[in-house]
Amino acid sequence: MKISLVLMVLSLVFASQVFAKDDRRECKAELVKLKAAFSTNYTTQNHHGYRRAKDAKEQGDYKQCVGLAKKARERAQR
Length: 78
Prior knowledge:
Layout (H helix, E strand, L loop, with lengths): L1 H37 L5 H15 L3 H16 L1
Helix pairs in contact: 1-2, 1-3, 2-3
């Protein structure tokens, strides 16, 4: 019983690390796309969105980073 509980906890920890790596990669990819969008339409509002997404990345909140970068990129592409 104890062994199965330990195995379940370890599998949850491992799964969360795998998802965190995916979030980190997705955040990095969105920041690259956002920076590429700047080359066509650079404004201070776009830079502010980039900084907010970059700050979220530095704090380790990769899901928020992805969301902020997507919003800023969509705003820049309009």
